[in-house]
Each structure stands twice: as structure tokens, then as C-alpha cells.
Design a protein that fits this description.
about 140 residues; alpha+beta; Thiol Ester Dehydrase, Chain A; 3 helices; about 25% helix
């Protein structure tokens, strides 16, 4: 599957005392990247959660920080599903600046249905398996 790309600008509030992006904010940027990938696939998490149908929660995440991002940098969050199971999926994510990789992550998310662990809806699994439409 081709990766989904999401752009994010670094603001003052994203940085620490040294002017570099605070480490936890990379996880926030990656969360937005995963959400936007699902949106590009036609999976609206907000609507699903409002109806208490299903949602995704992070089960595990391992981030490797390679180089710092700084205020005003325009970053690209790349999200690629690598494994789609019945109730979980694993994604690889990268945060880069102008082609230079700053951080990488392997993220495993689990589906919750009405507040409990459950299987992903079939149509969501099918959309993930088909991948991004050409215009996304």
C-alpha cells in the first residue's frame, strides 16, 4: 500500500526550552497522520465514535527519534499500514522535513466496539486492504 502523507507545521507550543519539538508531540503528529489516513479512506472516526459503533486505540508504539524538528519547520507525516488483522492493525510512520527523516515509529492499534475490544467492521478492513484512492 502506498503511504498517506500529511503535512504539519511546527509552532512555538510544540517546542521545548531548547527550541526543538518536545518528544511527546511527535506522537501527536503521528496520531493526526493516522486519523487523516483513515479519513482519506472514507473512515470517519468521529461519526463512528459518536454513534458508539467503533474506534481505535493505540495498543503499542515504539518511536525512534533521529533528528530534531524546530519551530516553523514544515513536516510530513507518512503513514503506511503494514498488517491488517481482524481486530488490530500495525502501521509504520515517519516524520520528515524536506525528505530528511526525523522520527520513525511502529504503531499497533486495536479496535474497540462500544467500549470493549472487538473486531474491526468488515467495510473498514476492506477499505484498508484496498488502500488509498488515487486522489488522496
Amino acid at each position: 500500500m502506498r503511504p498517506h502523507l500529511f503535512s504539519v507545521r511546527v509552532y512555538y507550543e510544540d517546542t521545548d526550552f531548547s527550541g526543538a519539538v518536545y518528544h511527546a508531540n511527535y506522537a501527536r503528529f503521528m496520531e493526526r497522520g493516522r486519523t487523516e489516513m483513515l479519513r482519506a479512506l472514507g473512515v470517519e472516526q468521529g461519526a463512528a465514535m459518536a454513534g458508539e459503533a467503533f474506534g481505535f486505540v493505540v495498543r503499542s508504539i515504539g518511536i525512534e527519534f533521529l533528528k530534531p524538528a524546530r519551530m516553523d519547520d514544515l513536516l510530513t507525516v507518512e503513514t503506511t499500514p503494514v498488517e491488517i488483522g481482524g481486530a488490530t492493525m500495525t502501521l509504520d510512520q515517519r516524520v520528515s522535513r524536506g525528505g530528511e527523516i526525523l522520527a520513525t515509529a511502529r504503531v499497533r492499534v486495536a479496535c474497540v466496539v462500544r467500549g470493549k475490544a472487538g473486531r474491526m467492521p468488515r467495510e473498514v478492513r476492506e477499505k484498508l486492504a484496498r488502500g488509498l484512492p488515487e486522489d488522496a
